[in-house]
Amino acid sequence: MIRAMHDEDSPTEMPSDAHAPQQQRNWAELARKIKAWGQELGFADVGIAGLDVSAATPGFLRWLELGRHGGMDYMARNVDLRCRPELLLTGVRSVISVSLPYWQQEREAERALTDRETTALLTPGSIATISRYARGRDYHKSLRRRLQKLAERLRGEIEQDASGSDAEVIRRTFAARAFADSAPVLEVEFSRLAGIGWRGKHTLSLTKQGSWRFLGELYTTLPLPQDAPVAEHCGRCQRCLDGCPTGAIVAPYEVDARRCISYLTIELHGPIPPEFRPLVGSRIYGCDDCQAVCPWNRFARIGDADFAVRHDLDAAPLSALFAWSADDFETRLAGSPIRRIGHERWLRNIAVALGNAESTPDILAALASRANDDSALVREHVAWAQAQHAARRAPCRPSGEQQ
Predict the structure, then answer these.
(1) 256 catalytic, yes or no?
(2) pTM for this prediction
(3) Which of 72, 215, 310, 330 could staple 187 via S-S, CB 3.0–4.6 A?
């Protein structure tokens, strides 16, 4: 599953002298406190990584060379920032990696789908499927706010016993910068190095409590002791590869974003390629199939209340969502990550899902209501959807009959 990146966050403070000596202290004890504070802030796991991401760099560069990032040009523009952490924070010496669970209890119908090891209906129905991470509040703000609180707690701790010249050194050298899927960071690699998850075959960070977790990082200039990477536990399992509707997981640990439904419904700005439209099913924002089929997600725990479902987005009729005006979209999705795709792409995605749904009167009426939409992009996808329904309603001709 592809999740989007936003603009870079600002550092808590930039050091004027990154190479000044650090105050002498028990760094292992400070690391223990950091993890305890993280737990208090709601993080499921907190680990500390070093800066060496060289193990992940070749795979990332190959992914770019093969063009598998599609239209996500920012991935190619920010290679140096992603592979050289010191470019995001001068004097950085440690990375605190955290995870925040977001999975919420499913409704009975959705639980039955998960039990069948799919999140999309085998015959798409009239209910929209929205990726679980996007059904509640925007995780960027919630996660970043907690990371900033962790940074403030850390600054207060190291300044507490400092005095005189020590205090001045700390003021000049300490810096921390929080990231929540908001800057060029190899977050899955840092989670691996910090020992809070391994890289699953679907390329997401995975734990023995599953993968329904957001990742965040706090870059810091403190020389904190590093945790040991966690061992992988995917074994010979390939359920995520087999369960991907579009075959986007082209090999273990390799995703071609151009085929990924999350990319197609979130990152792609233009038309969704016609060959993928029938495979989109009822998914109108993102796709969770590779995670839903993962055996480790059977052990997922209820996530943070910040991400509880809003506006019934786990059971909303496609026709009702398609009727939203631009003002409805902006108002009802305020504080939601969905809002970033804009009303036009929202309608584009729903039009495709309507085309895959059963030919019921409300579905056909919804499509007809936007057949002359102001947006050429929406009109094109509505026309495709209407053609799908027309083809299904057309009587079958006997074999050999002239067309």
Answers:
(1) no
(2) 0.87
(3) 215
